[in-house]
Design brief:
single chain, alpha/beta, nine-stranded mixed beta sheet, two-stranded antiparallel ribbon, 14 helices
């Protein structure tokens, strides 16, 4: 079958129209700073009510965290400090010197993320309604530093701009540790979706030399950029192997409910589009599925019981059984909580106990969301293709498979070094961050469950403390379990 070639200029125009932020009120731009001294930033007193509790805090907003910013709509950070710390008080056992710094980003779809603010009713469709994580963090005694970051819809926001910006914000906090409340040795990163991937990457790539030229170009503070702990919800990471993982999970499931991601009023919006894969997409799915076992086997990972994680040529094996065991754990917890699982035909339940999960039947039950290839589109149409573009080129391939099956005239492939430094998996051996909390909803279809499972397994293989789970009935989103998140944060930050 001969593939239709799409002229590059037409594709670029289409991507530009799709990717451009809405023509509403432009976000304000802030002047480049004269220095990176937090002591020079003026704060203002505010109060927010969180679950019936009045929480006074001081806000230090719109801090440009680099000396030579490229886009001060996004390269800013908001810092919020509980007022009690200015009065010599304590909250939840923390003081101004011991309070960890909660570091949530608002990146979704690898698009630009604004610096966050405390809200009593979250407006982010990735997050549930009610007080947002920043507001809850303040109520529990955390100092909050929420960074903005550039994203793929801006010419200067393509990879690796977002991770470089977050690292620069961490460096600002480290450089000003003695001048502000909170312990910059205990920065706890948090993010969802692409933001979850960036949160994980912050943890694994702390102080990695590969980012130094980018940080110097921005005039980042002369400090380290490692973080203490990582919270990552549904991380869209390991993009080099995400296509193969997705087809390993969903091959043979051809009906889909595709999600188009765009921006409205500078917030991520998601729209459902239904359809069925074409014969060509099915062929691509078959090819990608066949690539995944070799990748899994090359990692030479083991589970907690010491069982090697492998797959045979048909995609079956101990790694598949490992994911099934995680689904069983999720289902058993839901059953113990009184949830009705009678409609879950992919589970075997006997006498109140979940005995087994059929991964292939599970994939059919939850359904496909993306067409093959899910991430490196052969027509360069995905957000990830856009991510790996540059200032001159709207979109590029970033995998050999995508490039080999390309349908766009004049298509380019991203620089391998750029692709590499966007993947948390590539730095785990060197990364110093010890504590990771990874949550992926049992009903999440944005990337294969294999991606987060491999991340957790590799982190554990290198001695990291990993809290990994698949919450029952949860789709693609984050911050849905704030009580549990902050309990985990308190635990890891106060361990001896």
């Amino acid at each position: 079958m001969k593939l239709q070639r799409i002229p590059a200029l037409l594709l670029a125009a289409a991507l530009a129209a799709q990717a451009a932020p809405p023509q509403k009120a432009e976000l304000p731009r802030y002047p480049a700073p004269k220095n990176l001294d937090f002591a020079q930033v003026a704060g203002s007193l505010h109060t927010i009510t969180v679950n019936g509790q009045s929480v006074p805090y001081r806000a230090f907003e719109h801090i440009v965290y680099v000396m030579k910013p490229a886009d001060t709509r996004y390269q800013i950070m908001n810092v919020y400090i509980p007022e009690a710390y200015f009065q010599g008080g304590s909250i939840n056992g923390f003081t101004k010197d011991t309070a960890p710094i909660f570091f949530p980003n608002n990146v979704g779809g690898y698009m630009p993320g604004e610096a966050g603010q405390p809200e009593t009713d979250s407006r982010d469709n990735f997050k549930p309604s009610g007080p947002n994580a920043i507001a809850v963090a303040l109520s529990q005694g955390y100092v909050v530093a929420s960074p903005g970051a550039r994203g793929r819809t801006e010419a200067n926001g393509r990879a690796p701009a977002a991770i470089v910006d977050l690292k620069a914000a961490v460096r600002y906090l480290k450089a000003n540790d003695a001048k502000m409340a909170g312990d910059a040795r205990k920065i706890i990163s948090n993010g969802t979706s692409a933001g979850g991937a960036l949160s994980a990457l912050l943890g694994t790539s702390g102080n990695a030399r590969e980012y130094a030229p980018y940080l110097r170009a921005l005039g980042a503070a002369n400090a380290t950029d490692d973080v203490f702990a990582v919270s990552a919800y549904c991380p869209i990471t390991n993009l080099e192997h995400a296509d193969a993982a997705y087809e390993w999970q969903f091959n043979g499931v051809n009906d889909y409910e595709k999600i188009d991601i765009s921006m409205l009023d500078y917030r991520v919006q998601r729209k459902t589009v239904r359809g069925t894969q074409t014969a060509e997409q099915m062929r691509l799915s078959d090819g990608l599925k066949n690539l995944f076992p070799a990748y899994v086997n090359s990692l030479k990972l083991k589970n907690a019981q010491g069982v090697p994680m492998t797959l045979d040529n048909n995609g079956n094996g101990s790694f598949k059984a490992q994911i099934e065991s995680m689904l069983v754990q999720s289902a058993q917890k839901a059953l113990d909580e009184g949830k009705d699982l009678s409609g879950q035909t992919w589970l075997t339940i006997e006498n109140g106990k979940v005995k087994a999960a059929d991964f292939s039947a599970y994939a059919k039950f939850v359904g496909r969301q993306k067409t093959a290839p899910a991430f490196d589109g052969v027509d360069l149409s995905t957000g990830e293709n856009n991510l790996f573009g540059d200032a001159q080129t709207q979109a590029k391939h970033f995998t050999a498979f995508g490039a080999q099956n390309n349908t766009v005239q004049g298509a380019q492939t991203a620089d391998a070094a750029t692709v590499r430094i966007m993947n948390a998996m590539n730095f785990i051996k060197r990364g110093g961050t010890q504590h990771y909390r990874i949550r992926v909803g049992e009903n999440d279809r944005d990337t294969s469950l294999a991606i987060s499972q491999l991340l957790a397994l590799k982190l554990r293989a290198h001695g990291k403390n990993v809290d990994y789970a698949l919450p029952w009935g949860v789709g693609h989103g984050g911050d849905y379990d704030l009580d549990e998140l902050f309990a985990w944060m308190k635990d890891v930050s106060t361990r001896k």
